[in-house]
Amino acid sequence: MRLSLETLKHYARSAVENITRDRFTILAAYLRGSVALQEQPFLGEATDIDLVFLHADAPSPQREIVRLTDQVHLDIEHHDAALYRRGRALRVHPWLGPDLFNAQVLYDPQHYLDFALSSLRGMFLRPESIAARAETLLQRVRDDVLALELSPPASVTPALDAFLRILQHTANALALLVGEPLAVRRFLRDFAARLETLGRPGMYAGILGLLGAPRLDATRLRSLTAEWNQMMQALPEEDRPVDLQPPRRSYYRAAFDFYLESERPHDLLWPLLHTWLLAVQSYPHSEAVQDGWRGLCAQLGFEEDVLGEKLQGVVMYTAQAEDVFQEWRARQGV
Description:
Blueprint: H1 5-22, E1 26-32, H2 33-37, E2 47-55, E3 63-67, E4 72-80, H3 87-91, H4 96-101, E5 104-107, H5 112-121, H6 127-150, H7 156-178, H8 187-198, H9 202-211, H10 218-234, H11 246-260, H12 269-282, H13 287-300, H14 307-332
Parallel strand pairs: 2-4
Antiparallel strand pairs: 1-2, 1-5, 3-4
Helix pairs in contact: 6-7, 6-14, 7-8, 7-14, 9-14, 10-11, 10-12, 10-13
């Protein structure tokens, strides 16, 4: 049985109360993400509760996962409070800005967040602020594309890493024009909705094509998720990256199962690639991880002899995104 939104928020409040009781460097804490936005937080049969704690000094660790139930875990980030001293700068930050605008403050005894939030929220929705957040990501895209063109990767894994980073920033730049940044599990699903709002629905098929989705049918996608699950189970328990810890495996697997039963099963490709690439980079000497990755890349059409063609496709896609951005700016008069 799925937990209610109110139960999830109760878990969040209880976690903040327990954590702040013993950690005196914490100045504030807030809830962000799908639970804070009060949308349907479950995708499939799992969700997470995103909490951020602000510390008076540089915190360690910066992120941790805490299992609550088979369906739910806490995804906790620890930030240096100094990041929040310039509320106006946060207003145009592409990640922290939207998080704070929609944040539900759960702990702020010294009112540390009050000034940051009042400075940020005042003009957050003005077209100039929206454009600045999108522009920040598009500039990263331009820099990454230039770096690729000047020094193209010679092998598949660094090439795909660069491609995914460029596509992530490109998609989020467009998403920010009409909403929130895109979460990993919902990346393609929500991007399709944002493109509809922007009047560019065809760009959804474009990003699927760049990822190699047309080469895979639903049966093959199901097989790939089974291989992914075996790979995740085989990872060493010690020193796992945060996003590969056991609660995250259940979290992503629930999304895969959801997509496999949906009308758009290819939407699972983004979280599949995101997590498998992280495993490849974290365990370079694991044959199980590397062999599965090579097979996945081959099925998606990412092979060394076509990397130049793939690069050109990504460059053309970013040019489309630039056009959308400029058209949006013209309509808004900024």
